[in-house]
Fold each of these.
Amino acid sequence: MPETKKTKMQAIVDADAQRTTVEDWQRIHLCRENGFFRAYNRSCWLQHLLFPSMKMQHRVLPGCPDAIVYVGFPVSSLDRYTLKDVALDTKEDGSIDVLWPENAQLPENEPEKLESEFFKWKEAIPIKEPLRQKKQSAAKPEGKAQNFATKQADDGDVFENQFFPNHKQQKTRTERVSLSGIAQEVLAFSIESHSPIECMLFLQKIKEKYASLY
């Protein structure tokens, strides 16, 4: 039988699992995806060890048969979610390997034990319902914000809960598109280049857009 071609998500997860030495465990791989950095599985666990307050997700994502635990944050927040003076290895695709801080200690000193600790941690996180995939019959959306949301349909709007944690769980496709558009609008807004009055007006506009989703 011909070998089944891996999806991009499966390739990312498989690459992250290649940790046969302690040195392999001393890196956090951050994938760069449409304005966000995301850490999956073992990289997510290592990120959690350094920043335990970050919100993790545990789901079955499209393109990968097994449940994945992951975390993410906007590219602009990289300094906030990496320790000071930590070494960064930037790849050609924009992803980054964050090297483990020299003054931080891993919970174990053997690869097999680290693997065991990772699985214990992962299994303790409840698995949420799978993200809904894009329907083949869905009409093509219009507008810049909707085009962005369609591009994200393969793995869902991972960061909805991070930006809008109180939004109801059952959402229509139109609502997801609107949330993605609002998030992108916020990320694209430059506070430094606007006056205080303009910033206040922008905030009011965002609040009105968000309120209209209920």
Amino acid sequence: MKIKCIRRNVIIGIIAGMMISCNTNNTDDNNSVIAENNNVMPSNTLKETNYSESRNDIRFAGWTDKEWVNNEYICTVRKYIDKYLNGEIVESNFDENKDYIKGKFLVISIKPSLFGGVFMHIIFFDNPKNVFSVLVRSDVDEDTGIVSDYECMGLKLEMSDADITQEIILEFLEEYPNHKLW
């Protein structure tokens, strides 16, 4: 029993760590960095050069932990899965996982994608041993900063033997109430 409790606490800690590490958004320009041509430079160097903001800099400007756990990217995944399950869209790569993707899911990691939008890992409450990856793209108007046209680019089973249970998910949600099942 003690080993199970320790393992459960470790798993909850890992999930929390993934969320925290993926969602930190340092607003201090002196400490943030950008990657350009495989070089990393302080972003305050931008003012001294002709580099411009990336589209992801525009997409996620000012995001706090609250935005990282509740946003249109996650809503897009929920809407897309619901449309698939209701037969409104055909998604052949979902077919093999149809039995796994019913019900609500928890986002266990989310981060900006180099393809424009976010890349996330999700688990479904009814089948928490399966971890799926999903890419959600969006367009951004560089002049106005308006983000639009969110598009789910697919759902892929990444792991089918995760050591996560419904009990662990419920404990996580109790400990981190800003997260929720979608």
